[in-house]
Design brief:
Helices cover 64% and strands 3% of the residues. By secondary structure, it is mainly α. Strands 1-4 form a two-stranded antiparallel ribbon. It has a two-stranded antiparallel sheet with strand order 2-3. It is built from 19 helices and 4 strands. Helix 18 crosses helix 19. The protein is globular.
Length: 441
Amino acid sequence: MSPFLQKAFGFDPKQHSVRTEIVAGITTFLTMAYILAVNPSIFSALPGMPTGSVFTATALAAMIATFVMALYAKKPFGLAPGMGLNAFFVFTVCLTMGYAWQFALTAVLIEGVIFIILSATKVRTWILNSIPVTLKNAIGAGIGLFIAFIGLQSAGIVVNSDATLVTLGDITQGKALLAVIGLVISCSLAMLHIRGGILIGILATTVIGLFIKDPATGAAITTFSGKIVSTPDSVAPIFCQFQWHDIFSWDMVVVVFTFLFIDMFDTMGTVIGVSQKAGFVDEQGNVDGIDKVFMADAIGTVAGACLGTSTTTTYVESSAGVGSGGRTGLTAFTTAVCFGIALLFSGVFLSIPACATAPALIVVGMMMMQPVTKINWLNYRESIPAFLTLLLMPCCYSISDGILLGCIAYVLMYAIGGKAKEITPTMWVLAALFILRYIFI
């Protein structure tokens, strides 16, 4: 058995334990399984994307990508459709820019193919080195703010106001009250470092919703079909639904670049951070086998696009499994098997109301804010572009506008500050393209 495990997952019986790897894989699944409830909830805003089909696509994309990570990269990392990337797909590309979800799926497919090429040719390293670290940190945190804002909106905690654009909703009853209760539960579990705390918070909030009525309908907020185990819904309505006639438009270029940019740097940060915790990083800061990790991520994105969901990426929650002792692909394999089993419980996950998943969005958004501590706020050449990126994502309800305007501001601040020579040629080109975008489109 050991030779097979070593060849398949990089398992060394002298250093690793099968029991530890399996427990670590289950732990990773528990910490990231909230995506099975959150992703269908986010995509429910788009007509023509049935929540049951999105649930199945989410589970299958996570399972396929994590299997590739286990067998090809042999690392203990779990993958699934990424938070932030799904929000950009739904709320920016579809609801703000006005494109059909088929257009967005096509962009995800193209991004995945480009990511495969970049991972295979090492061009990825050159691109990564061209983007300022300040903007990388600001983008991750800005997406966190954007996700949290979406959570507040979907819960009814923040509502529309004709006078001030937004204001506090009625948090004393209905969905907003349930979301506040869920937020207290989720934050408490996160503070206590409870494994699977986000998922536990969602499930607990869902149960409480059985006893809280929606004042608009008089019915309980949570309704359950009664089917605990059921056959997964077909992905046929969203499978390979691509739209090719807009692939040469400027908006497609911007959307593909944004997907690629977010996926690239989010994955890089996640892999480096989790690898440091696992001891996979050498003295020079290089991660052993990082190209294979990126390739698994890219293959997962292509598979996810074909299945009908947003960009698949490596999850920072993998650190929970690593913290439990997971060090090989057997951990990831176990996580993938768990996603496969979850397919049979779609009725449970799809009964979860949006106001129960909203606290998860808020808590995950908070967790994504950590990179702001790495920004030099006293250096205005660095902090002004970073701040604009952070601010504009939620205020403009657009991840792409935050990135584009942040890049432009970075080049302007350095040029005005007499540091033009420190700007990379790539940043000059990107800034020029982004300015032209706002002038002519």
